[in-house]
Amino acid sequence: MTAVxxxxxxxxxQEVVLRAxxxxxxxxxxxxxxNVTFTQYSGEILxxxxxxxxxKTTLLNLLSGVYRPTxxxxxxxxxxxxxxxxxxxxxxxLGRAFQIVRPFPEMTVHENVTVGALFGKAxxxxxxxxxxxxxxxxxxxxxxxxxxxxxxxxxxxxKRLEVARALATQPRVLLLDEVMAGLRPAEAxxxxxxxxxxxxxxxxxxxIEHIMPVVRDLADRVVxxxxxxVLAEGTYREVTANxxxxxxxxxxxxxxxx
Length: 258
Ligand SMILES: Nc1ncnc2c1ncn2[C@@H]1O[C@H](COP(=O)(O)OP(=O)(O)OP(=O)(O)O)[C@@H](O)[C@H]1O
Description:
By secondary structure, the protein is of the alpha/beta class. The chain has helices spanning 56-64, 86-92, 109-120, 126-139, 155-168, 185-200, 212-218, 236-240, 243-248, 253-257; strands at residues 16-27, 30-41, 45-49, 71-76, 79-80, 94-97, 173-177, 204-208, 221-226, 229-234. It has 10 helices and 10 strands.
C-alpha cells in the first residue's frame, strides 16, 4: 500500500503542531500501527478514519502517550515527545477527550472541569482554575449545570463535560476519540458545532470518527488507515473517491457511507 502524499498549499505556510514520523506499534505478532507518517498544521481539524481494527485507537494511544511506539518519532509543537509521559505531553499542550466519559461522578460539573484546569498547566492557582472552569462551562453550554453532580448529566452533556475537561488543560492540540458515538443525529450536529467552536478558539483538533457525515462536516483533511497503515490522505471528497479506500470499507460505496 502506498500512502498518497498530500501537501496543503495554504496549510504548508502554517506552524506544524503534530508530526508523526514512521510510528509503529507491535503487540506480539501483530503490527497494529505500521510506519504511520502525517503532519497536522495549526488550526486544522484532522480526521482519522478506517474500518474496524485499522489501528486508529492504537494510533491515538501513541499520540497521547498511553503507549510508547515500537518505532518512529512524534513531535508536538516542534519538540520530540516520543519518550514522554501522558502528563508531560498534556503539559506540553496535548489534550485528549475519551469515547467512554469518566468524570468524577460525585463531584459537581464545575469541580470536574476545575480538576482539569489544575492538572493541565503547572502554576495555576485554585481561584484561576475555578474561573477558567466557569468560562469553559459557558463555552461548552454547561453553565446551567455547573453545580449538578456529574452523574446527573445526559450523554450529550457528558460529552460536553469531557471536552470541557480536556480544554481546561489548555491544549494546543485536542485529540477526540469517537466523541460522537451514541449520540442521536441532532445531538451529533450540536457536538459538531462544539468542535467548530473549539477550532475557532485556536485549538487544532485530531479526531477518530466512524460517522461519515460528521467527518464530511468537520474535517479539513482526512487520514484513512487500513491494517495499521495510512492508506490515503486528503480532503473528504478526495479520500471517499479513492478506490482503495472504498475497497477497504467492505468493497462497496455503501460500506463507506454506512
Ligand atoms: N492492547 C492490545 N493488545 C493486543 N492487540 C491489540 C491491543 N490493542 C489493539 N490491538 C489490536 O490491534 C489492532 C488495531 O486495533 P485498534 O483498536 O487500534 O483499531 P481501531 O481502528 O481503533 O478499531 P475500531 O474502529 O474497531 O475501534 C486490532 O487487531 C486489535 O485487536
